[in-house]
């Protein structure tokens, strides 16, 4: 079978992977049906770069972790996350909610995605506080929303391009254009709209970023939390290190991430192999597959080359 075709797994292994994916995303809450209502479009179309990138659980884990590392470097964001979320006490449930929100934003019916984002914005409007140094913050501060959107864009693009398959400049530009509607809905009206704008925004934010012990607490939580099943725990720890390794050099230095958080060449090959395999496995019941069904597309649409 060609490397760009869906990967046929033994039935027992396919079933196990599908159960584990469903358990992570939907355990403890109702499972949204991404296959309905039939024909309703998502915020971005199925031939988008976003649909291709977000279908890969390996690069999503790496990219999301890398994004949070950058987010936590901003003191106001760091205080908002650490003081007003359940990440320290219930990290798995928090990750489930975040992952499901990402899936709904990309693959969900447009009406449900917009309703979910509106609920998030109402929640953010009630969150405010002060950093340990006395700086006031609000979760709906436009600059902080821009920073969160920018770090997420960087994380997902960089992880997919580095550990799955390289994205062309045209693909990266399309990815940013596809994210404009979502950024506006979340209130990140001035979020970067191109790779050039992202680099400029990073440069502008660097003087405001600071190291913190909380960043290492986050990394250790991500390594220890039962996110992947027991046999896959060594891979989970490797993916967390991949997220730190993927950061720009200036960010690793600023966050004081030493060689412990760098991948060796053979480890990088393992992560890249896992990412490429994951990119070829459609999982029944997953948001990407159900969204394809909703739009009348084959369940293997995202896993089959298109001319």
Describe the structure in your own words.
The protein is mostly helical. The protein has one domain (56-278). Helix content is 60%, strand content 2%. The chain has a two-stranded antiparallel ribbon. A hairpin with a 5-residue loop joins strand 1 (128-130) and strand 2 (136-138). It starts with 10 loop residues before the first helix and ends in a 13-residue tail after the last helix. The model has no long low-confidence stretch (mean pLDDT 93).
**Strands across the major sheet, in which order?**
1-2
Radius of gyration: 19 Å
Q: Flag low-confidence runs.
A: none
Helix content: 55-70%
Roughly what fraction of the amino acids lie in strands?
under 5%
With helices defined by DSSP (H or I, 4 residues minimum), what is the helix count?
14
Give the rounded overall mean pLDDT: 93
**SSE ordering:** HHHHHHEEHHHHHHHH
Keywords for this structure?
two-stranded antiparallel ribbon; single chain; 307 residues; 60% helix; 2 strands
Give me the secondary-structure topology.
Elements: H1 11-26, H2 49-54, H3 57-72, H4 75-84, H5 91-107, H6 110-124, E1 128-130, E2 136-138, H7 142-163, H8 169-186, H9 195-205, H10 213-224, H11 233-245, H12 249-254, H13 265-278, H14 287-294
Antiparallel strand pairs: 1-2
Brief sketch in words of this structure:
The chain is mostly helical. It is 60% helix and 2% strand. The chain has a two-stranded antiparallel sheet with strand order 1-2.
